[in-house]
Amino acid sequence: MSAPLLEVSKLSKRYGQVIALREVSVTVRAGEVTCVLGDNGAGKSTFIKILSGLHQYDSGEYRIDGEPVRLTSPRDALDRGIATVYQDLAMVPLMAVWRNFFLGAEPTRGIGPLRRFDIEAAKRITRDELLAMGIDIRDVEQPVGTLSGGERQSIAIARAVYFGAKVIILDEPTSALGVRQAGVVLNYIMRARARGLGVIFITHNPHHAYPVGDHFVVLRRGQMIADAAKKDMSRDDLTRLMSGGAELEELAHELDRVGTASDRPQST
Ligand SMILES: Nc1ncnc2c1ncn2[C@@H]1O[C@H](COP(=O)(O)OP(=O)(O)OP(=O)(O)O)[C@@H](O)[C@H]1O
User: Domain ABC transporter: where (predicted)?
Assistant: First the structure.
């Protein structure tokens, strides 16, 4: 079997006294969706930042195509085919869909001083690429801000695919969306997978993760509390793991609150 596209093993990271990640191991293969689930403070953002080259890890190993790497910037990650689609999507709402698609990487025509942005090519490529992902935008001249959240997420995914990503990391792509729009995005995740990409889907929602995931990793307070292939984990197991986490967090918070209240001097 060929080397996984991306593999981290026993990755740890601390911020001062806070252990944000403790020995986290995740493997991503071509044509697979790996879901990383966790509630607030589980370490999801830290995990994304390390994979995308924004943060360094303290210990463990990070391999891309089997080769150990120490990424120094998001550019470095992109050059190795690791693209991260953040919640804010890095799009300009007032600009047309096609302009956003090519933001910062415009196709040019001609050479030397005659080199110029090839608008027609950009529009055509945008239309074709979106269609290939099953996204039927009526008009690529439409400002991105007029599209639905699900459509915007899908365009960001299509853009990453077009620009050569082998692995896409999706940062809570469905969390701000209603059920229908979330369904739209989950559909594009399946399409990216069908095109042979490795997908890391970060979410706190087991109902969004389960239908599209091949593998599930659950983080709680920086630690892996579950790591299983779909055949070894039912939807109920995953939901239970996540709701258990939320309950525990809430309980800890409540205990802190009660503890603080009982420390206060009693008024007479
Ligand atoms: N720059 C930082 N300095 C200190 N502590 C940090 C920093 N970034 C994150 N942490 C802590 O590390 C832990 C993990 O945080 P992280 O943001 O990765 O979790 P998360 O799963 O993304 O949570 P959320 O869903 O709330 O964003 C938390 O306890 C957080 O307070």
Answer: 6-246
- Enter the tokens of residue 134: 């099953």
CB atoms near residue 79 (< 10 Å): 12
Q: Are 175 and 87 in contact (CB under 8 A)?
A: yes
Given ligand 1 and candidates 46, 172, 174, which is best to mutate, with the most ligand atoms within 8 Å of its CB? 46
Strands 59-64 and 108-109: unpaired
Is the domain covering 6-263 a CATH 3.40.50.300 domain? yes
Does ligand 1 have an atom closer than 6 angstroms to the CB of 42? yes
Contact between residue 161 and residue 195 where contact means Cβ atoms under 8 Å apart: yes
Q: Which helix (H) or strand (E) holds 63?
A: strand 59-64
Query: Maximum distance among all alpha carbons in the chain?
Result: 85
ipTM of the complex: 0.93
**What are 16-32's pLDDT values in tens digits?**
989 999 999 999 999 99
With a 6 Å cutoff on the Cβ, whether 18 touches ligand 1 is yes
